[in-house]
Amino acid sequence: MSAAAVVDAYVAGDPGQLALDVVLRVPAKSSLAGVHVGREAVLAALAALGDRSADAEPRIAARFDADGRVLVFTELRVGATIARQGIVYHVRDGAIAEIDLFSGYADDVTTAPLRR
Amino acid sequence: MSNAEATGFDVEAFYQSYWRALGSGDDAGAVNEHYHEDVVVRMPGDGRFAGEYRGREVAIAAIAALHEEIYRYRVTLLERFTDHQGWALILDEHVPDDADDVFPFRRLHVYLLRDEKIAEVNVFAGHCPDPERTSWWR
After folding, report:
1. Which single residue of A13, A18, B90, B115 could bond A22 by disulfide (Cβ 3.0 to 4.6 Å)?
2. How confident is the model at residue B72 (pLDDT cuts 50, 70, 90)?
3. DSSP code string of B54-111
4. pLDDT digit string, tens, across residues A50-77
5. Inter-chain touch A25–B50, beta carbons under 8 Å
6. Which H, E and C letters describe A61-79, residue by residue?
């Protein structure tokens, strides 16, 4: 399966696309800032981030698919603010091995929805 | 945003042209040649560079001020994504902390094209092992 297909399956709701030793890096100024390791820990962190804006859906402003990795740039309106976030998925051996979150202008990653 | 895919615009060549221009040190020239007149540049955080900058002249001033700061720092390009939309760069900036020790600060830059010019520059802050070590992004 291509990296794009793995990420699509994960975003569609299949946590099994995360490697067992997946690594999630969350930027500073988030209560979950730091490095989270392992599927359970990563899913828990993403669930906690997503809970903060459970009723919102981000707009995908751009998506880049490359060999072994996928980058998604999202925009989410939260009140009068548009929160921007970058997410980079690194796929190895058919599973998401790393997820890097990036926080953009007027954005606090705690307000961005990452439901999965 | 970009119709480069339909027109056959060579985004890779445009990217190379932009970075050569920036590398020459002529920020104004690089912006005037490669940026859309309605460009929007967005810088994250709440430090002195944070904000949204609209229009080429404003972008020139913002980029010049930023480069005056970061030209002193080593920047490592980790990954690049390029397609008809534009390009995205994942970088490690090796910035000094308040004690002048250097450490990596990961950033993401997303450049989106419109009418064969850079119409949006979105800068994102990534993971930093100890963000309190530097006032750069505060």
Report:
1. A18
2. low
3. ESHHHHHHHHHHHHHHHTTSEEEEEEEEEETTEEEEEEEEEEE-TTS-EEEEEEEEEE
4. 655 545 678 889 999 988 999 999 888 8
5. no
6. EEEEEECCEEEEEEEEEEC
Using a CB–CB cut-off of 8 Å, the residues of A that contact B are: 25-29, 33-35, 61-62, 64-66, 69, 71, 73, 84-86, 88, 100-107
- Cβ-proximal residues to B97 (8 Å cutoff; 6+ apart), any chain: B103, B130, B133, B134
Say yes or no to pLDDT of B116 above 90: yes
CA pair distance B92, B132, nearest whole angstrom: 17
**Integer Cα distance of A103 and B27 in angstroms:** 25
pLDDT of residue A69: 93
| B8: exposed, middle or buried (Cβ count in 10 Å: 0-12, 13-18, 19+) | exposed
User: What's the mean pLDDT in A91-115?
Assistant: 72
Q: How high is the pLDDT of residue A52?
A: 53
What pLDDT score was predicted for residue A37? 97
CB hemisphere CA count around B131 (13 angstroms): 18
Q: What percent of chain A has pLDDT over 70?
A: 84
Q: Which of A88, A90, A99 to mutate to test the interface with B (most CBs of B within 10 A)?
A: A88
What backbone phi and psi angles, to 5 degrees, belong to A80?
A: -90, 5
- Taking the C-alpha atoms of B121, B126, B131 and B135 in order, what is their torsion angle to the nearest 10 degrees? -10
